[in-house]
Design brief:
heterodimer, A: mainly beta, five-stranded antiparallel sheet, globular, B: mainly beta, seven-stranded mixed sheet, four-stranded antiparallel sheet
Chain lengths: 112, 114
């Protein structure tokens, strides 16, 4: 049972444009959501998070939107840079800093 | 910021031997540590959750006698893969959390069993 889903395995974007990565979840108990960037053979790097009491959180070029009624969140990266090319995982927790459930990941490629 | 050190980064072992992976929180006390494994091109799958001084809680399908987790102190957790087999070859990642610190991940360990 995949409780966190990233339905797009890959996304290709031109440098300077917006990258939008999507994530859906099924567990209504999830109350904390995070986005991570990951390179092969490395641990995930935290990007941005959002609590279920908010619908938007912004940090520099990264913005996360949460739509609780749709059980959907998205990560916007504006403007996209070639250095953003990596695998992006969304993750969710049901109990504050409890265990994380990860999506399958989306490979983002930003072309110069 | 919070730093989690994971060692070794790569290990190759013979089938039937045991391998220990260490995860240390360097600048904070990790009350909870999580161990994940990731197969190529797949998601990070939680294996177990450990709280300092307590027995680890394993996810369904994870053999607790094969993947021994010890969290004896607030800064160190270890994962021992016992009697390793080629199918245990994977990328193992730890994550630590503590008061005022969210999830901090280690850099991962690539285990290859030959």
């Amino acid at each position: 049972d995949q409780q966190v889903k990233q339905n797009s395995p890959s996304l290709s974007v031109q440098e300077g444009r917006i990258s939008i990565l999507n994530c859906d979840y099924t567990n209504s108990m999830f109350d904390y959501f995070l986005w991570y960037k990951k390179y092969p053979a490395e641990g995930p790097t935290f990007l941005i998070s959002i609590s279920s009491i908010k619908d938007k959180n912004e940090d520099g070029r990264f913005t996360v939107f949460l739509n609780k009624s749709a059980k959907h969140l998205s990560l916007h990266i504006v403007p996209s840079q070639p250095g953003d090319s990596a695998v992006y995982f969304c993750a969710a927790s049901a109990e504050g800093y409890g265990k994380l459930t990860f999506g399958q990941g989306t490979i983002l490629t930003v072309h110069p | 910021g919070a730093v989690v050190s994971q060692h070794p980064s790569r290990v190759i072992c013979k089938s039937g031997t045991s391998v220990k992976i260490e995860c240390r929180s360097l600048d904070f006390q990790a009350t909870t540590m999580f161990w994940y494994r990731q197969f190529p091109k797949q998601s990070l799958m939680l294996m177990a959750t450990s709280n300092e001084g307590s027995k680890a809680t394993y996810e369904q399908g994870v053999e607790k006698d094969k993947f021994l987790i010890n969290h004896a102190s607030l800064t160190l957790s270890t994962l021992t893969v016992t009697s390793a087999h080629p199918e245990d070859s994977s990328f193992y990642i730890c994550s630590a959390s503590g008061a005022s610190y969210g999830y901090t991940f280690g850099s991962g360990t690539r285990l290859t069993v030959v």
